[in-house]
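For reproducibility, we list the full input for the succinic acid complex.
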Amino acid sequence: MTITVRRMGPGFAAEISGVDLSAPLPEDSWRQIYEAFLQHKVIAFHDQKLSAADFHAFGERFGIIEPHTVEMYRHSERPGITLLSNRTELGRPKGIKDAGSHWHSDYSYKAVPAKATMLYALETPDEGGDTLFGDLAAAYEALPDDMKAKLHGLKAQHHYRWHVDRNHPEGRWQLLTESEREQTPEVIHPVVRRHPETGELSIFVFPGLTSGVKGILGMELAQSKALLQTLYEHCDQADFQFRYKWRTGDVLVWDNRATMHCATTDKLPPDQFRSMWRINTTGTAPIAG
Ligand code: SIN
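The corresponding predicted structure, in tokenized form, follows.
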């Protein structure tokens, strides 16, 4: 098996060719894939034909699979796989219609946020439904030194479903059952985290809708809001971003410990359909940077 890795984005994101993810992966191929994952943060494989078992087995290479908080869209045979789809079946949504058309990092609302997320494209639209990625290590690196010093030691309160508008149709407040709400209390994370494997520092705050930051610990509300807004605007710059246009059969894996992402499914035209399987693996509690 000859594996080729080719850079896709500005300073991150790469596509990998020469791999059939439905076949057993030789150890040296797996090592190259994992190195590419750590180095490029977002990796793509094209033209894959996977069963739920194949996708699940590949997911397990990246750690322990953690089923999605919203139980109703778990795959019936492999609950570790979540269905994302804008299709309906017998009048009911087939999957999560919009898994997050706002900047976020998966499971940042948990004490132990996600390590890898992977999506497998079962069906893709001709138009729309791209996923945007942001390199939060590059964003941290580009901060002025006085801002880096200011952020050092700060901690932020993260909360699932945090959004000013609880009636927002895609806000998680609407989707969660009472017990799911109880299972998602507020958590505290460092504003700058150190990657447990590469040692890189990255910014770790997000604006919210399905999950976001309520505030920075020990700061006046107005001061905390202003600082968070500065960080959101800094991270949301084209220099740190990459847009992925999906093709059916693509598998994308990203490292939530150094990136953020943003779906664009909120703008998907109604005659365009997009269905994906998604897996998250568990990381480790963020280390303060
Ligand atoms: C996600 O936010 O996890 C899914 C991204 C997408 O559907 O493009």
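The pocket of succinic acid is lined by residues 84, 99-100, 106, 117, 131, 261, 263, 265 (CB under 6 Å). The longest strand covers residues 114-123. Both points were considered when choosing residues for closer inspection.
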